Amino acid sequence: MSLLVFLVVLVLADGVVTRFLVSNDLGLEANPFLKMWVKSDLLFVIKLVGASLAAYILWTLYSTKPKMAWITTSIFVGAYALVMIWNIIVFYIATGRLS
Asked: For 59-68, how does the pLDDT look when each residue is reduced to its tens digit (9 = 90+)?
């Protein structure tokens, strides 16, 4: 359960950081589906609904296939952790704090 909560938090954090980077001309939104909403508050609604739906599906899957649900959740947490690390690197490069 805590891994699912962490996944939702990472997805929302990705939205916050991406919006900050894009709004300050420090980065770009790579996801073509979210590109048009990155400067809108709707981005957070989309991220929250999408992450919550994914967490619900994974939670439901856990009751019948716990190993598959855990592995899938772990992969998504790892992927979003890498996205967050990438966003932080982009921030430091764009602001000249990492050369």
From this structure: 999 999 999 9
Whether residue 14 contacts residue 51, with contact meaning beta carbons closer than 8 Å, is answered with no
Could you give the CA distance from residue 14 to residue 35 in angstroms, rounded to a whole number? 13
Positions of the chain with pLDDT under 50: none
46 vs 11, 19, 91, 95, CA distance in Å? 10, 13, 23, 28
* Other residues' Cβ atoms within 10 Å of the Cβ of residue 63: 8
- In whole angstroms, what is the distance from residue 4 CA to residue 57 CA? 10
How many CB atoms are located within 10 Å of the residue 13 CB? 16
Domain boundaries, the chain: 2-94
Helix H or strand E segment including 64: helix 42-64
